[in-house]
Design goal:
The chain has 210 residues and is mainly α. Helices cover 78% and strands 0% of the residues.
Length: 210
Amino acid sequence: MDKKMLAGVVLFGSIWGMLECILGDLLRDNNLPAGAVMSGIVAITLMTYTRMVFKKRGMQLGMAGIASVLRLTNPFTGCLICSAIAILIEGIVFELIWYNTFDLRDLRKVDIASLGVVTAYLCYVSGFIATQILTPLLTAMSFNVSDLFAFMPQILAKGLPAGILGAISLPLVSYARSYDIRMIKSSLYYPATACITLLCWVIAIVNAMM
């Protein structure tokens, strides 16, 4: 396995998880659309950048796994199981949508924006639906299929802001492909990724203790 890619999985997964713990909770505490922002901007930006730069399948799912674990370190806010499941599902959905996509150079701007809408919308909605199904199963809560279908129109509607944000963030992050962190010398790359990763975990854990 590419060692730089593995370090990148841990690094970007940790950044994602830290932002979920801090920015996500800050948005929720202020009754702002945390899910739409975290899916349509944070998740899409980090997963798209790493797919364009590293060009490896499975990397984004690995990042989602790291982020979901880090999200579980903050036991005092929100539904941790829900958040962790949603993050992991976002990684899976991204991998499915981008299975044959590694770069955006050949796409028109309108196509990139459309891809952003589809990716962000499906990531958000799929994550939301998965939490409604899996959370009760993992926490011994009752689950009623009829309740899920009853709330389905609301769930589908809530994905629209995420899709709109995806249409904005994906074209913007597409310009970042020229900033290839793989080109950083190994003597600097590994210490830098290790320090930033450690910092993300420390910040998230300290924030949970405050």
